[in-house]
Design goal:
Layout: E1 5-12, H1 18-31, E2 35-42, H2 44-49, H3 53-56, E3 61-64, H4 69-74, H5 87-96, E4 106-107, E5 110-111, E6 114-117, E7 121-125, H6 127-133, H7 141-149, E8 153-154, H8 159-172, H9 187-201, H10 213-222, E9 228-233, E10 249-250, E11 270-274, H11 283-292, H12 294-303
Parallel strand pairs: 1-2, 1-3, 8-9
Antiparallel strand pairs: 3-11, 4-5, 6-11, 7-9, 7-10
Helix pairs in contact: 1-12, 8-9
Length: about 325
């Protein structure tokens, strides 16, 4: 009898992230009797800021977001998936991944993770509270500021989120963020972006500067403190009946002026990477592909609370 393959994985701590992986692992084990997969989780802050090399020593499967791709490449922390997966399979996944979710894990000719989750900042709101206030969801920056002045609006102002809001506005103001390796953008453009954020957040309570998107969504669905969130990384769970006491609705980003082009926010989401220390480079990428596949993404993954990156879902 062949020995059992044991794989360990590290994800992050939210209903959008952890339960879908446990569910896919359970089903994979049922269809692959010789494999056992054990997932653990870390906080959202640890997910974004703890260096991946600390996890690469302990886990076979690491859920990452794309800003870690370059770090993983430079330190040789994860396997390049191109030699481990057929070109035809990867081409199909690339074709059917939403937006740049697949390409965001490509670095220096290598594929460092398979996309499983898609997210980007977008507005969310409580339809009941906006109706009570007699307003529609804002469509322009001026309308957003007006709603903030009525103490109805919020944004996550935690430092990482605030920086990404800033980059979004720099892009909207006509600069290409970080095109120059020496600076983010022209000083006058950055000053304008900061002033816009100051105008929007001035009427908001100072506590928002310690709140991440999850904390804002929890606050909006458990209290009546805020009716509309201008932009935060999306968590579809809060739009699902029964997940929270009140449901959120999600919609399109603002335009800076009426009829103008909508803001373009910064891609988020996650992918599964295979640690360079993983000894089983057959089962690990096979399970990652299973989780990233259209069939699983539109069934087990999304039903368990996930926010899929595959177009089939």
């Amino acid at each position: 009898m062949s020995s059992t393959v044991h794989l360990t994985g590290i994800a992050w701590d939210h209903s959008r992230a952890f339960p879908p992986l446990v569910a896919t692992a359970q089903r994979y084990e049922e269809t692959h009797p010789g494999v056992r997969i054990h997932w653990q989780k870390r906080t959202l802050d640890e997910f974004g800021h703890t260096p991946i090399d600390e996890f690469a020593q302990k886990f076979d499967l690491i859920v990452i977001d794309h800003p870690w791709a370059g770090f993983c490449f430079e330190k040789n922390l994860v396997h390049d998936l191109k030699p481990l997966v057929s070109a035809a399979t990867l081409a199909e996944l690339e074709k059917n991944s939403i937006g740049q979710t697949f390409n965001s894990y490509c670095y220096e000719g290598k594929l460092l993770a398979l996309p499983i989750d898609a997210a980007t900042p977008a507005p969310s709101w409580r339809p009941d509270l906006l109706k009570r206030a007699g307003v529609q969801p804002p469509q322009t920056w001026a309308e957003a500021v007006a709603l903030a002045q009525r103490k109805l609006a919020v944004i996550p102002g935690f430092n990482a989120d605030l920086f990404l809001h800033f980059v979004m506005l720099v892009k909207a103001l006509g600069a290409e963020p970080c095109a120059d390796r020496e600076k983010i953008a022209p000083r006058e453009t950055m000053h304008q972006a900061v002033e816009m954020l100051r105008e929007l957040t001035a009427p908001m309570p100072r506590e928002i500067f310690g709140m991440n998107p999850i904390q804002v969504a929890e606050r909006m669905t458990t209290t009546d403190d805020f009716a509309w969130n201008a932009f935060a990384y999306t968590y579809n769970n809060y739009a699902r009946p029964g997940f929270a006491p009140k449901q959120l609705r999600f919609g399109n980003l603002l335009s800076l002026k009426p009829g103008g082009v909508r803001l373009r926010s910064v891609l988020g989401g996650t992918g599964i990477a295979i640690s360079a220390n993983c000894k089983n480079i057959v089962a690990a990428p096979d399970y990652a592909l299973f989780t990233a596949s259209g069939h699983i993404q539109k069934t087990i993954y999304v039903h368990a609370g996930g926010q899929p990156s595959h177009r089939a879902a």
